[in-house]
Design brief:
Structural class of chain B: mainly alpha
Order of helices and strands of chain A: HHHHHHHHHHHHHHHH
Radius of gyration of chain A: 23 Å
Number of strands of chain A: 0
Oligomer: heterodimer
Largest interface: A-B, 103 and 87 residues
Number of helices of chain A: 16
Chain lengths: 498, 215
């Protein structure tokens, strides 16, 4: 792509292109929900090894808090952190402000309301389910609705919040699409991912939260549910994550992405194959077999696409390998990419019917999910935060050493958890197939579940270190020179497409 | 086309999503459209096992049953099934228990017949409770396997009947004692006793001594 010189436009850039305050707010909200999510995960982990100190307390039930754990990560941490990063990157890429600053703040509060009400619904809803007024409403409307969670993984958002969440997603798309629409010249890779993600996220959310609840039951609902779970990762989290990588990596390495052709292959390959993967979550179910085969083939195709993207980023790093050691955000990104490649390679294997026999329904899948959601996307977002906070606050990190601790505790913690749970899954699969009494599989899992607690505590400690570091940084004195290898705070991004 | 706004939005964003939705979402719906979705009323009317369990609850816990449901009639049984499903979802049971017996890994020997589509074609499988993880066993064939008393004690304090179980306790489904289930407790027991109760028989997998694996 022949990038045109943006020079004429550079003269008209408004001083307040990026609203730093809202980026900080989003990151703050994200970290708060990460903290809450980890508490929920810890509670469930303690329950499994019989160490739960809060037994028999209705509002602290591990079953409910497990849903807080997953929802707080998806909608609390990832969505908030993404929105913060989008508020930074889209105006700088397009050289236009978001559609409306007031709308940005409205969305911020609306989204926090969505996340908090989801949590409230999950925690309090089941307790109110047998109230007289619910029975009365059920009778009058003829709808047997749940106040609490809906029965779909990551679609637990109670039905009465879904319309608000959908409205929020539509407003997000509008707020960011306006600057993108105003941008002139060729469109950079990042914006392809972002634009597609705005469409996909809305459609995915609507499909998953409305259809299995209101329009179809049974096996067909399973097919829709599979599409939803997978699309939420593949069409909401993944494109936003990769879009941000395509933005931040070239800026930090100060050179363009290695191959524009591979960028094209990566984007369009993902766009075509990823939506076709959903049913691989329900192999061996009564869902028609030819659809299961189709999903398996599409999944293997996605791994090939992923390989091109990873090659492209390795090519970009080539010759600058030293920055993997010295530049902490780059290290977050590329460690996340290594984990991404591992999960995707693992996915190509585990999605086959042969593997599914053994590992479906086991902790293998839980380990896989943690490596994807924490090891890849949360780590990328931590890297972005590590890079951006000095620029947002106009002061260096309180302690570079604590930033290192955050990285090592998170990376080692999640990788240990991944290995541990993967191994646990293999054991569980063989326990079940061997027809030993069920309790043998539970007791046999205990060593792995105990190890998992310590891996999780390491990740938790990493977060606490980061929060402490951030707190001290906020309190610290002003300084002009942020760390991590980027002297100019407000330098506008050079067109980075190759 | 591949780098333009309209191309990304219309082909990538809308087009590919719709293609996947039609091929993977609508196709199974069309394939199963001849299989009508049953209401909870039909499920109760067709399957006498559920009503038997529901009446048994009245016999065992007369005071609680009187207080929370009154009569053991079909209408109340339907209400109990619906509420039971909501409790099952709201308490997160489905995150540790699946409802689908796979045709592999000896699962049909442990739990009985491999799950088929017609079993899910009812309003209580909205959304379908296939599940995502098995910490505890699959529940597709749980109905009638154990007594209502066992379930009551198990929900109250799982370790009392299953000493190694890491399952959480649910004392809030009771008025202080395992023989006093409240409305949610009675409903959840009814729901669990309904699962798989439409089948004539399935193996009782705890008693492995009686499983003759050589034949």
């Amino acid at each position: 792509m022949a990038a045109e010189s943006p020079t004429p436009e550079l003269e008209n850039i408004p001083d307040d292109l990026v609203d730093r305050r809202i980026v900080i707010w989003y990151f703050g909200a994200a970290l708060t929900f990460m903290f809450i999510s980890m508490l929920g995960g810890l509670l469930m982990a303690l329950q499994l090894v019989h160490w739960n100190p809060l037994v028999g307390m209705e509002l602290l039930s591990p079953g409910r808090w497990r849903m807080i754990h997953t929802n707080a990560i998806a909608y609390g941490f990832l969505a908030n952190a993404f929105l913060g990063a989008l508020h930074w990157s889209i105006p700088r890429l397009t050289l236009h402000k978001v559609a409306s600053r007031a709308l940005s703040y409205f969305i911020f509060f609306a989204w926090q309301a969505v996340v908090l009400l989801t949590a409230a619904g999950i925690i309090f809803g089941p307790s109110l389910q047998d109230s007289a007024w619910v029975a009365k409403m059920t009778k009058e409307t003829g709808l047997a609705f749940s106040l609490g969670a809906q029965g779909l993984e990551w679609g637990e958002t109670p039905f009465w919040i879904d319309p608000v969440a959908l409205l929020g997603l539509a407003l997000v798309a509008f707020n960011f699409m306006v600057p993108i629409a105003r941008a002139k010249g060729p469109l950079y890779v990042t914006l392809w991912y972002f634009m597609a993600a705005f469409v996909w996220t809305f459609l995915t959310y609507a499909m998953g939260n409305l259809m299995p609840e209101y329009t179809v039951a049974g096996t067909s609902a399973g097919a829709i549910g599979g599409l939803f779970i997978h699309d939420l990762v593949g069409l909401f989290v993944t494109p936003l994550g990769w879009g941000l990588m395509y933005y931040f990596v070239p800026i930090m390495l100060k050179k363009p992405i290695w191959s524009h052709g591979l960028s094209l292959v990566g984007f369009w390959g993902l766009a075509f194959f990823y939506p076709l993967n959903g049913i691989h979550h329900f192999l061996y179910t009564p869902i028609p077999m030819f659809l299961q085969y189709g999903a398996v083939i599409a999944t293997v195709a996605v791994e090939l696409v992923v390989a091109t993207v990873v090659i492209n980023f390795v090519g970009t790093l080539w010759g600058d390998g030293r920055s993997f050691v010295t530049n902490l955000p780059i290290r977050w990104f590329y460690t996340g990419m290594v984990f991404y490649f591992i999960t995707c390679f693992q996915c190509a294997l585990q999605v086959t019917l042969t593997f599914q026999k053994l590992i479906h329904f086991t902790d293998w899948v839980v380990g896989h999910a943690h490596l994807v959601m924490f090891g890849v996307f949360s780590m990328w977002l931590f890297g972005i935060m590590t890079y951006l906070f000095p620029r947002l606050l106009s002061r260096p990190w309180y302690s570079r050493k604590l930033c290192e601790w955050h990285f090592w505790l998170s990376a080692v913690g999640v990788f240990v958890m991944f290995l541990d749970l993967g191994l646990a899954g293999v054991f569980q699969g063989y326990f079940w197939a061997s027809l030993l009494p069920w309790s043998d599989s539970v007791n046999g899992s205990q060593p792995f579940w105990i190890t998992r607690i310590f891996a999780g505590l390491a990740m938790f400690a990493g977060l606490l270190v980061f929060l402490f570091n951030l707190w001290m940084t906020c309190r610290g004195a002003e300084a002009n020179e942020p760390e991590f290898d980027s002297p100019k705070l407000d330098a506008n991004p050079a067109p980075a497409a190759g | 086309m591949f780098e333009s706004k309209s191309g990304v939005l219309l082909i990538g964003g809308l087009g590919f999503f719709l293609f996947a939705f039609l091929s993977n979402g609508i196709v199974p719906m069309l394939m199963y459209k001849e299989l009508p979705e049953k209401t909870a009323e039909q499920l109760v009317a067709e399957n006498e096992n559920v009503m038997r369990q529901f009446s048994d609850l009245k016999t065992r816990y007369p005071e609680s049953f009187e207080q929370y449901f009154g009569e053991a009639d079909e209408e109340n049984c339907v209400a109990a099934l619906r509420l039971g499903r909501q409790v099952y979802i709201g308490e997160g049971c489905w995150h540790c228990h699946s409802q689908f017996v796979r045709p592999v890994s000896n699962e049909s020997r442990r739990w009985g017949m491999v799950s088929e589509t017609y079993e899910y074609q009812n309003e209580l499988q909205r959304p379908v409770m296939f599940g995502t993880r098995r910490v505890g066993p699959d529940l597709s064939r749980e109905g009638g396997r154990r007594s209502n008393d066992w379930h009551a004690v198990h929900f109250f304090r799982p370790k009392m009947v299953s000493s190694d179980s890491p399952m959480p306790e649910y004392p809030w489904l009771f008025d202080g004692a395992p023989d006093k289930p409240n409305r949610r407790g009675l409903a959840l027991i009814t729901y669990v006793q309904w699962l798989g109760s439409w089948l004539d028989s399935y193996p009782y997998y705890e008693e492995l001594d009686e499983l003759n694996l050589d034949n």
